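[Q] Does anyone have a clean structure-token version of this?
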Amino acid sequence: MYGLLALFFGLGLAIAALLSVQNATAVSLQLFLWRSVPLPVGLVLIFGIGMGVLMVAIAKPLWTQPQRAKGSRRSRSFNSAEFADHEPEAWE
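[A] Here you go.
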């Protein structure tokens, strides 16, 4: 699974590098009234890919739930402590 992910990521970086070599035109990003300094297309692509990878790395723990092993130490100690004070004849 990780090999396939690394292959796609490497392929994306190779495509971005190829585009940046072929097209060295400076582009300027604009958001409302803010405008960036002119940067090469390849640099903008690499920053975009890096920001995407960073955002996924930060967000991934938020949408995955931790997996607990069955019969973990906490659940075993809870089960033994739960019935420690009761006598068997009181249950009948």
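[Q] Thanks! Anything notable?
[A] The beta strands are 26-27, 30-31, 34-35, 39-40.
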